[in-house]
Amino acid sequence: MPVSTIEWEGDFNGSVKIVDQTILPGMLKYISCTDVETVWDAIKKLKVRGAPAIGIAAAMGTFIGIRNIETDSVSEFLNKFEDVISYIGSSRPTAVNLFNALERMKKTANSNENKSVKEIKSILLEEAIKICDEDKASCRSIGTHGAALIKDGMGIITHCNAGGLATADFGTALAPMFTAKEQGKKIHVFVDETRPLLQGARLTAWELMNAEIDATLICDNMAAHVMKNKKVDCVIVGADRIASNGDAANKIGTYGLSILAKEHNIPFYVAAPVSTFDFNIQSGDEIPIEERQPEEVTEGFGMRTAPQGVKVFNPAFDVTPAVNIAAIITEHGIIEKPDREKIKTLID
Amino acid sequence: MPVSTIEWEGDFNGSVKIVDQTILPGMLKYISCTDVETVWDAIKKLKVRGAPAIGIAAAMGTFIGIRNIETDSVSEFLNKFEDVISYIGSSRPTAVNLFNALERMKKTANSNENKSVKEIKSILLEEAIKICDEDKASCRSIGTHGAALIKDGMGIITHCNAGGLATADFGTALAPMFTAKEQGKKIHVFVDETRPLLQGARLTAWELMNAEIDATLICDNMAAHVMKNKKVDCVIVGADRIASNGDAANKIGTYGLSILAKEHNIPFYVAAPVSTFDFNIQSGDEIPIEERQPEEVTEGFGMRTAPQGVKVFNPAFDVTPAVNIAAIITEHGIIEKPDREKIKTLID
Fold first, then answer.
1. Dist CA A324 CA B199 (whole Å)
2. Helices B254-263 and A254-263: crossing angle, nearest 10°?
3. S-S: B239 plus which of A37, A312, B201, B272, CB 3.0-4.6 Å?
């Protein structure tokens, strides 16, 4: 079983307990966030990461940010609440689950404006915990649906970490693998290390080894060679935002991997909860791509590995067009050859 | 101008002077190898690397290995010479230039067996220096031929280091860029960092910056996103061995890059001297692929970045099929859409 990545600890005065993923697998350390700045920082610095886990952190962070607002005026409260929402929304631009979670907290607050400030605060804590619980359930369901695609003996490639550490519980891309393992299927997983921050090497390899799933670490640039020379039957990755036409933003490198899979006739699956869909956008072209600082590339691991002053381009995500995706695995079921129509039908 | 990567220093009792590429760009340090074990170690540990430079090191290393054989019997000398050849050949299996250089040293020795041991030794030193000089000339010629493919304003992607540091002088894949720059063309180069050993980040970025060519460092898994979203007009890479049908072995990641280039309709060029062709093999399937130790992947940056005990697959090369190659740039000219026939015609 995966470790508990994120959970609410205590009551109204409690804290968000988060595994610090920047120091895994060397050390398993928890952070308890009791103020909103610490939550913002944890999201920004990828101490908590993975689209669903970011959504949960944002919801719980919102509660932490508003619980000490001292006023009996609901309208004053809601104004300050908006500031907290904007602040948390400024941490990372690509994962839609973050904005979906904030939107849900906002709706919850607004639909309870006839209640007292004290009551609204309690309802918001309940809502944040509910988002966490729902994520756990949807991970399990993604696992069950996705495991149907995995046959005994299959070889799989995955990229980045869409495992338990990216969610409250069982993961998205890894959930079908965990479930397949529970079903007694023997599988082999090639894990892209996922530069620059090595979430594959640090987190996914660690999760799969913990679950006793046969895993082999490779550098990202080895995937094509592996597809050609080893047994690879499918690719499964997560997603940070999916447009209404099925174009999916995920960790940088995913788009390239989808092209390599197509070249080798290997089905390419995206596993994500429905909270990852953004129906406000028509295609992947509209998804903002976060660019991160050059040092992640030039001195990521304790030593300088590129000349001083070198120019660096460091996009954190890319967009895989729907046409490259064989199926999207959601908690509601599988959308084969995803398009606008099929997505709408399944989600509605 | 690139630094002098490898050269013979002194006379009969001299040494091979090599830039230690494992500590670049942090430090520019030369090693003088005066015994054959040090040369073997420099090749094995990639202190000297790049197919043409390895060939030169092997030839000079051969001379160093035989200069102290104390005998007047040519047949005894040639027996011991064979041992030195085998020993150096055991350092790295993929680059054919190494074996071509050894073969050439062998032919030189054998065709002079009517001379004295002392004379043969001197002839072998001359031959090793000649291999180095020829490499310099062929790099310049590759530059001239290749620059004809580069237009003013072009964007280029390159992988690994096939620059001056991989040769005696001007490089193979980088030679057309250096020449284009000399011709006053403005170009922009995206440099794949090239995991696991980061030859792109450490060496290619450094060489291009030294030559005042506009260069941007990216992680290998960003190439597809860059091709889709930035101006990329061609890919130019080197090669470590080219089969007689045009299939080309090069640094791991090259094959994947060729697929991405095809998907984006970007011409994919391989630049290599004719010594890179291996007419003993019919296709890339016959090229042995060196697998290197797991630690290059798991602790390459000065700290452990993957769980202890994780399985790793670490092939150092892959094979790009000829069909993915728009042209091979050699010192004799350009082979467009390379196949067995065209290659034979140009090389003969």
1. 31
2. 90
3. B272
Residues 238-257, chain A, touching B (beta carbon < 8 A):
252-253, 255-257
Name the token pair of A168: 């409250």
Contact B177, B189 (CB under 8 A): yes
- Whether A73 contacts A23, CB under 8 Å: no
Q: Is A259 in Cβ contact with B297 (below 8 Å)?
A: no
CA distance B226 to chain A (A): 9
For residue range B208-266, what is the model confidence (pLDDT) as tens digits?
Answer: 999 999 999 999 999 999 999 999 999 999 999 999 999 999 999 999 999 999 999 99
Query: Is this prediction's ipTM beyond 0.90?
Result: yes
Does B237 lie at the interface with A, CB-CB under 8 angstroms? no
Is the CB of B221 less than 8 angstroms away from the CB of A224?
Answer: no
Residue of B nearest to A250 (CA): B225
Residue B91 contacts A, CB cutoff 8 Å: no
Q: Which domains are seen in chain A, by residue range?
A: 6-140 (1.20.120.420), 149-347 (3.40.50.10470)
Residue among A183, A182, A192, A184 nearest A156 (CA): A192
Q: In chain B, whose CA is at the least distance from the CA of A200?
A: B306
Q: Do B313 and A206 touch (CB under 8 A)?
A: no
Instruction: Report, in this order, helix, strand and coil percent for chain A, each rounded to 5.
Output: 45, 15, 40
Task: Quote the CA–CA distance of A328 and A174 in Å, as a whole number.
Answer: 14
Q: Which residues of B touch A262 (CB under 8 A)?
A: 263
Q: Which residues of A39-54 are buried (b: 16+ CB within 10 A; e: fewer)?
A: bbebbeebbbbbbbbb
Q: Do A190 and B304 touch (CB under 8 A)?
A: no
A vs B: CB pairs below 8 A: 187
User: What is the tens place of the pLDDT at every residue in A188-205?
Assistant: 999 999 999 999 999 999
Q: What DSSP assignment string belongs to A270-288?
A: EE--GGGEETT-SSGGGS-
Give the gap in angstroms from C-alpha A107 to the nearest C-alpha of chain B.
36
Nearest to B243 by CA among B321, B166, B317: B321
Residues of B noted as catalytic: 240
pTM (predicted TM-score): 0.93
Return the residue matching tokens 């080893």.
A230
